[in-house]
Amino acid sequence: MAADRMLKEGVWVAAVILAILAGWFDWRYRRIPNWLSVPGLLVGISGNTLAGGWEGTKSSLLGAGLGLGLLLPFVLIKSLGAGDWKLVGALGAFLGPGPLVTVLVVAIFVAGVMAMALIIYKRRVRQALRNVGRILAALLTLRLPASELSLENPESLKIPFGVAVAFAVVLYGMQLVMTGS
Q: What region, left, alpha or beta, does residue 160 occupy, with left being phi > 0 and alpha being psi -120 to 50 degrees?
């Protein structure tokens, strides 16, 4: 019983380490390398399999699939980078579906705060409001937003989503330690 708990804690520690490394790479280089995310996915599945048997494998695969499935549309319309997408898939393999949803909600709020701070700092509030209107109009007409509203536009402001995800994983891990869960 104690060995199972230690394995589960080890899986969480590995998830935190993966998230921090990915956040650092995203902050420093604005990309998350495949050599970090892809093995992370495999380590997450393996760790959960060792810690929980078939149930651990199932939870890990569901978490990875959920993370990849939820964020794929944003990658396809080029509002999220593929490195962020793969990171969330790998973290889903570590965390499982329930905790991953919590981490994603926190990460989205953190990314929103980061984006608001960047917009204000760069004095682009009016442009940001116009862009939100254009995105909403595109959604209402069931069309893709204009290409200048994607990550491919060199003029667009970009925040490192990997940093927001890392922050959320660390917060969730701290909450687990503090509650003893």
A: beta
